[in-house]
Design a protein that fits this description.
Rossmann fold, four-stranded parallel beta sheet, six-stranded parallel beta sheet
């Protein structure tokens, strides 16, 4: 989202808006040096904004990202600022939905606090449906769809087949399903294992457990943990497929990044993934948790029964560009 925030800030300034940014971490990356940033320490960005606005200027528009929807914060915000409020929802939902108690609480929150939000933005059709299911269909007229986008020109385009080289780019937590991938690789016949190598980029709380599982199955020569890397835009071109066995997703930037590098994707139909990945055209889809199916897909790719020979990056350039994302968000502002 860093590049979006920078581009959005510039687009707002060109429209004559003065923009203040409130972040919840006290150490703001130098990437944001051109933004007017208020960084909080010890309190949330929401509470920092409320405190700041007590004795500060009035804001005409407030846009929230990565903030829980339909909470008392929005009531306090509307009462203090009388601003036009846009709430952007980036949050994935559990694959089997929320427990009944949370569903009821969300509906109650929708009745109590949805009226203080002027526009609910979902980053995928999946997200829009989740917003309506969580908080009630009465807010449908206030919802808008704006897909996430990336700057495709940053990604080096794959020129070679890179047969058998696959990549994971993910936070290493249970919901990302990397444990399933390891199990799937272990199921492969030995003659196919020798054709495969997977690099895993990312860090997270499950890393040690995943590394132990790799050692347990003697897959150290097949699966390598590479840690985090800022060079992924240049590295993705070196692989034949991105693997994303995730259980929870809202709208995956990793998928867009892989496609921008002309790398097809093997993933699950969670979140907004099916809105981008089309079976056999730019990737392959399997049901989350179905390890045998994932193993079978990898097996068929290695046996060249499953192939994707056409370029897969055109979709990102045409429909999921950063420029289009910024333009669509700007259109949501009143009086633009």
């Amino acid at each position: 989202m860093d590049r979006f925030f920078m581009a959005y800030n510039q687009a707002c300034k060109e429209k004559g808006y003065e923009v203040d940014w409130f972040f919840s971490n006290s150490q703001v990356h130098s990437f944001y040096k051109k933004l007017k940033v208020f960084a909080s320490e010890g309190i949330s960005a929401e509470n920092q904004f409320l405190e700041h606005s007590k004795n500060s200027k009035r804001y005409d528009i407030v846009v929230t990202h990565f903030v829980a929807l339909c909470t008392p914060f929005f009531q306090k915000l509307k009462n203090k600022q009388e601003a036009y409020i846009i709430a952007v929802d980036h949050n994935p939902r559990p694959i089997n939905g929320f427990p009944i108690k949370k569903k009821l609480r969300n509906r109650l929150k929708g009745l109590l606090y949805a009226k203080y939000i002027d526009c609910f933005v979902g980053v995928s059709k999946y997200t829009i449906n989740c917003i309506l299911e969580d908080y009630g269909s009465h807010i449908k007229r206030k919802t808008a769809l704006v897909y996430n986008g990336i700057k495709a020109s940053l990604y080096e385009e794959k020129a070679n087949e890179n047969f058998g080289k696959m990549v994971v780019a993910s936070h290493l937590r249970e919901s990302k399903g990397i444990q399933d991938l390891i199990e799937a690789v272990n199921l492969l016949a030995e003659e196919n294992k020798v054709l495969l190598h997977i690099d895993i980029y990312g860090e997270g709380p499950m890393q040690m457990e995943l590394e132990r599982k790799v050692k347990l199955y003697h897959l150290e020569n097949k699966i390598t943990f590479k840690g985090s890397s800022s060079e992924l835009p240049n590295l993705l071109q070196e692989y034949s497929f991105l693997l994303q066995p995730t259980y929870m997703e809202c709208f995956s930037l990793s998928i867009l990044e892989a496609l921008a590098a002309n790398v097809p994707v093997i993933t699950t139909p969670v979140g907004g993934n099916p809105e981008v990945i089309k079976e056999g055209k730019n990737g392959f889809i399997f049901k989350a948790g179905h390890i045998q199916t994932l193993s079978s897909i990898i097996d068929k790719v290695l046996q060249k029964q499953y192939r994707i020979d056409k370029k897969v990056n055109l979709l990102v350039k045409e429909q999921f560009s950063l420029e289009r994302m910024v333009e669509e968000h700007i259109k949501l502002l009143p009086c633009t």
